[in-house]
Amino acid sequence: MAFDTYQTVFADERMRKRVMRIITVTFLSRISQITVKLLFNDRIGRTQWRQHWSGLQEIGKLVRTLAPDYMDYYQDGFHPNQQDTHALTRYWAQHLNDAVWA
């Protein structure tokens, strides 16, 4: 597992958290910049604020759902195996399998 490899090689909690913050800020800022650029270049899209607002509300729901697990990453001694992902794994395995055989 990549996390175990990182821990074996570096074993630096401060660096792990710092890199995650840098990645998060960079990802969110770039996605925001690209989204704004696309909206300004799309004449029709600029007029569809109701749909954009609805999309932002859905993103807000997603963030609220994911935030607790995301914040766990910043706890000292965190390991991904502390997260129970069995139900999620079964769900996606079934859906991806259905998609392949459809």
What does this structure look like?
With 102 residues, the chain is mostly helical. The protein has helices at residues 2-9, 13-41, 43-46, 49-72, 86-101. The longest helix has 29 residues, at 13-41. It is extended and about 50 Å long. The model has no long low-confidence stretch (mean pLDDT 87).
Low-confidence stretches: none
Distance between the termini: 31 Å
Order of helices and strands: HHHHH
Structural class: mainly alpha
CA gyration radius, whole angstroms: 19 Å
Helix share, percent: over 70%
Summarize this structure briefly.
With 102 residues, the chain is mostly helical. Helix content is 79%, strand content 0%.
Q: What are the main properties of this structure?
A:
79% helix, single chain, mainly alpha, 5 helices, 102 residues, extended
Strand and helix map with partners:
Elements: H1 2-9, H2 13-41, H3 43-46, H4 49-72, H5 86-101
